[in-house]
Structure formats: structure tokens, C-alpha cells
């Protein structure tokens, strides 16, 4: 599973871990993504989305029908 949100497009960030001795090593800041199932009344079925915490809030605010319509317009297969 790629660590990318289907709704917001959030992807991992990269940076450094800095130890006590100030040695820097590369690290990755992963996105908090989860697989969620949503009932979409306009499609008459459930869809499984990989969404971040911010993506879940977006769906709660705007509605699943609007978000799914935008995903389909972008060409995302659901």
C-alpha cells in the first residue's frame, strides 16, 4: 500500500533524524493513512478509499458524494 491519500494527495515528507551528538541520518515522515469503506448513495455501493486523517475530515465536511465525484473526474478508479 502506498502511503498516499486519495483525497488530499498527501505523500510522505523527508528530512533528518538528529541524534544527541547531532549526527544526521535520513528519515521519512509518513502520512497517517487508513483504508476506509464508505457507502456512496449515488453509486449504490461501498467504495474503499485510502485516506489520511485530513482526508477523513474533508469527507465529513463536504460529503462522500462530492468527494467521489471529484475523484472520478480526476480518473481515479474506485
Question: How are the SSEs placed, and which strands pair?
Answer:
Blueprint (H helix, E strand, L loop, with lengths): L12 E6 L5 E6 L3 E8 L4 E8 H10 L1 H11 L4
Antiparallel strand pairs: 1-2, 3-4
Please characterize this protein's 3D structure.
There is one protein chain. This protein is α+β, with helices and mostly antiparallel strands and 78 residues long. Helices cover 27% and strands 36% of the residues. The chain contains two helices and four strands. The protein has helices spanning 53-62, 64-74, and strands at residues 13-18, 24-29, 33-40, 45-52. It has a two-stranded antiparallel ribbon with strand order 1-2. Strands 3-4 form a two-stranded antiparallel sheet. Strand 3 and strand 4 form a beta hairpin. Helix 1 packs across helix 2 (64-74). It starts with 12 loop residues before the first strand and ends with a helix. The mean pLDDT is 95. InterPro entries: Ribosomal_bL28, Ribosomal_bL28/bL31-like_sf, Ribosomal_bL28_bact-type, Ribosomal_bL28_sf. This is Large ribosomal subunit protein bL28.
